[in-house]
Amino acid sequence: MSVHVPFGLVCGIGLIGFLLVALQHWRRGTVVLGLALLVAAGLRAVIPDERAGLLAIRSRVVDMLLYSGFGVVIISIAMTITGLFG
Q: What sections of the protein cross the membrane (predicted)?
């Protein structure tokens, strides 16, 4: 597996999320963006450091905690906001 595949997968999921937001499906798009971060955390957990490519920013533990933490927060906020067009 190339070092660019994990990062490309996460970017692809993120692009789908941004596309959904641009198409006025902001809640679904935001949840997909959060899922992209959870996928990044999962990939960071199982892929060795030398193959993680651009997903490896800090140590493995810090990357996993930050990716998963931000993913959960983004999904939680998206699911609890009410009163908008979604």
A: 6-23, 30-47, 67-85
Report the distance separating Cα 4 and Cα 21, nearest Å. Answer: 25
Take residue 19 and report the two structure tokens written for it: 């596309």
Question: What are the backbone angles phi and psi of residue 82, rounded to the nearest 5°?
Answer: -125, 160
Secondary structure, 3-state, 3-56 = CCHHHHHHHHHHHHHHHHHHCCCHHHHHHHHHHHHHHHHHHHHHCCHHHCHHHC
> By the 8 A CB rule, do 11 and 4 touch?
no
How far from 35 is each of 1, 2, 23, 75, 83, CA to CA, in Å?
22, 22, 18, 8, 23
Residue-wise pLDDT for 2-37, tens only, equals 889 999 999 999 999 999 999 999 999 999 999 999
pTM: 0.91
